[in-house]
């Protein structure tokens, strides 16, 4: 797994016994999993065992831990993958095993949570347009240019529960460019579906 520098530094801090003892490490990992799984979970700053730790350090470690957890679940990482990633950021065997035990305990719930997130982007369901002709602008200068007012109706998600409108104005050249790009996108999708 590839980790950003910020996440790697947070995990290195989490691995360092000088910053977090094993007891505090275990509490932080427990809070990280609980915060991902529960919408009403107490925050990392509310845990009684973690109140003595610097809040900025605690926040950085918590973000790094939750990011690593989500990435591991997303990639369906096994013990060897997780262990090798944690070894790279200086985790000792005891902390690595403690993390993996918590990971195994919560993995199914996290997989269910990630699979329930709707990944379907908004899609256009209808389009309408209107031609306006601008004679003068706000500075009383003559413009004499046509303007197209375009409106797209969109629906979010697979079930189409939420709908919204996207409205914009464009010139004839901009409209021609949009139509050309939409045609290109349609051809690309057609070619991709034939593969």
From TrEMBL:
GO terms for biological process: sodium ion transport. Pfam families: COMM_domain, COMM_HN. PANTHER family: COMM DOMAIN-CONTAINING PROTEIN 3. This is COMM domain-containing protein 3. InterPro entries: COMM, COMMD3. Belongs to the COMM domain-containing protein 3 family. It comes from Electrophorus electricus. The gene is COMMD3. Residues 123-193 form the COMM domain. It comes from the Eukaryota.
């Amino acid at each position: 797994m590839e980790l950003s520098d910020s996440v790697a530094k947070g995990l290195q801090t989490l691995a360092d016994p000088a910053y977090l003892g094993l007891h505090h490490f275990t509490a932080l990992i427990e809070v990280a999993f609980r915060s991902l799984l529960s919408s009403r979970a107490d925050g990392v700053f509310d845990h009684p065992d973690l109140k003595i730790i610097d809040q900025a350090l605690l926040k950085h470690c918590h973000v790094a831990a939750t990011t690593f957890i989500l990435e591991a679940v997303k990639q369906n990482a096994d013990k060897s993958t997780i262990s090798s990633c944690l070894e790279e950021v200086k985790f000792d065997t005891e902390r690595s095993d403690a993390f993996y035990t918590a990971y195994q305990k919560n993995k199914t719930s996290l997989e269910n949570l990630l699979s329930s997130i709707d990944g379907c982007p908004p899609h256009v369901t209808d389009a309408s347009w209107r031609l306006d002709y601008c004679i003068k602008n706000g500075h009383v200068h003559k413009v004499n240019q046509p303007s197209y007012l375009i409106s797209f109706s969109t629906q979010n998600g697979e079930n189409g529960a939420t709908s919204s409108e996207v409205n914009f104005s464009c010139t004839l050249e901009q409209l021609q460019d949009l139509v050309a790009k939409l045609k290109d996108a349609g051809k690309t999708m057609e070619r991709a579906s034939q593969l």
